[in-house]
Design goal:
Helices cover about 40% and strands about 15% of the residues. The protein is built from 16 helices and 13 strands. Strand 7 (about 170-175), helix 6 (about 175-185) and strand 8 form a beta-alpha-beta unit. The longest helix has about 30 residues, at about 200-230.
Length: about 425
């Protein structure tokens, strides 16, 4: 394998760290392909196109080639597709990016090639969509002339511990021989167990149930938050109490919504695919409905808090803190903060200020002190460290705080005389 040419197609939050990991091993000829010239220009200057601590470090130490011209894929033995798999406005999976990537790769597949899909897909996608398309375009037979496999990505942006180099992976291919070959390939640059699945469809299903599990549990605590708000119970305190049970309980916490490219998207893949086979995932649909309702629920808490002070939302100066879906990163994908921003601006005509230190281009103010000056209320939609560590005495200058991430000290803030509302507390 020492001279095997490996191409990563799609150089975003999944693909670029993967390219770095493969290059770091020094065992392959690593190639990166992406349609974005802007990304490629950065990568050619050995700069990471994404905000990722590991990638930003490795990009300065490794050697690779990258291009937005498909010809770079010529003579590649292993193709790894890492393009986005979004859902449309009706929550149906959008296979456009994968189909486009497959069409590009097909031009360079020869006998003996390996094609790995890392993009998250619903069970059956590789065999029902990717395989027939590849066979049609290449005139080759999958499982005989070339191998098709699925190794669902596992990445956790901003995590200081878990990254592409140490997270265990699952892989399944059309043939057991192909599974073994590609599992050994991943073992050569990942220092973690690589589990060989019996079928490609089983490999596809692992990622879906991982993220659907989280979505269901988050929906459970979000619904509890609504219930406990009515009952006058602090849900966060209750969860902490329940967490001291040493078995059979896993803590999840309520918030203003679920973001990121995986949890709010992946359940729809399974819901829609099962529907085609005649099964209705009522439980999963209910969980999605609950989690999708949280941005509006959070805004309603702000509306009620303003009304308690005889103020209307329209014309009130509101500071929205945070736009990204997760703490201390700039990733905006599926962020509930974007929905909250839209509701406040378009539905309630609030005088909206925005501050996110990781998205300065979308912020209206440059500093936290500046954005909080003379506001009627604050809504925290992302629990960035800067917000969490802001001195309590400075928060005292804000009449109302709606803590959409339950990240501030409730008792201390209430003792300062301001109105504080969390989610479920």
């Amino acid at each position: 394998m020492s001279k095997t040419k490996v191409a990563v197609i799609g150089l975003g939050y999944v693909g670029f760290p993967l390219l770095c990991a493969i290059a770091k091993s020094g065992k392959y000829e690593p190639i990166g392909f992406d349609l974005s010239k802007e990304k490629i220009d950065l990568i050619k200057e050995y700069k990471s196109p994404i905000k990722d601590e590991l990638a930003e470090k490795l990009v300065k130490e490794i050697k690779y080639e990258a291009s937005n011209e498909p010809v770079i894929l010529k003579n590649t033995q292993i193709f790894i597709i890492c393009v986005p798999t979004p859902v449309d406005e009706q929550f149906d999976p959008d296979y456009g990016p994968i189909i486009s990537a497959v069409q590009t790769v097909a031009q360079y597949i020869i006998k003996g090639s390996y094609v790995v899909i890392e993009s998250t897909v619903n069970p059956g996608t590789c065999e029902e969509i990717v395989l027939p398309l590849l066979e049609k375009l290449t005139k080759l037979k999958a499982g005989i002339d070339f191998e098709l496999a699925h190794c669902p990505e596992r990445i956790n942006p901003g995590d200081p511990k878990w990254n592409v180099l140490n997270i265990p992976r699952n892989i399944g291919a059309l043939t057991s021989k192909g599974t073994k070959y590609l599992a050994d390939f991943y073992r050569s640059f990942i220092d973690a167990p690589i589990n060989e699945m019996e079928t490609i469809k089983e490999a596809e299903a692992t990622k879906i149930i991982e993220n659907t599990f989280r979505d269901i549990n988050i929906a459970y605590v979000n619904e509890l938050a609504k219930s406990f708000d009515v009952l006058g119970i602090d849900l966060v305190n209750v969860i902490k109490g329940a967490s001291n049970k040493p078995f059979a309980f896993m803590a999840h916490y309520p918030s203003c919504g679920v973001g990121g490219h995986c949890i709010p998207v992946d359940p729809y893949y399974l819901i829609e695919r099962a529907k085609k086979s005649g099964f209705d995932h009522k439980f999963l649909r209910s969980a999605r409905t609950v989690n999708n309702s949280m941005p509006e629920y959070t805004v309603n808490k702000l509306l009620m808090a303003l009304n308690e002070r005889s103020k209307a939302m329209k014309g009130s100066t509101i500071a929205l803190l945070g736009l990204s879906y997760k703490r201390d990163i700039g990733d905006l994908r599926e962020s509930p903060a974007l929905i909250i921003r839209k509701i406040l601006q378009k539905d309630y005509l609030a005088d909206l200020r925005v501050y996110d230190p990781y998205n300065p281009e979308q912020s209206t103010h440059k500093t936290l002190d500046e954005v909080l000056k003379n506001v009627d209320a604050v809504l925290i939609a992302t629990d960035h460290t800067e917000f969490r560590e802001y001195p309590n005495e400075k928060w005292a200058n804000v009449p109302i705080i709606i803590d959409g991430k339950n990240c501030l000290d409730k008792k201390k803030l209430l003792s300062l005389g301001l109105t504080y509302r969390g989610i479920g507390r």
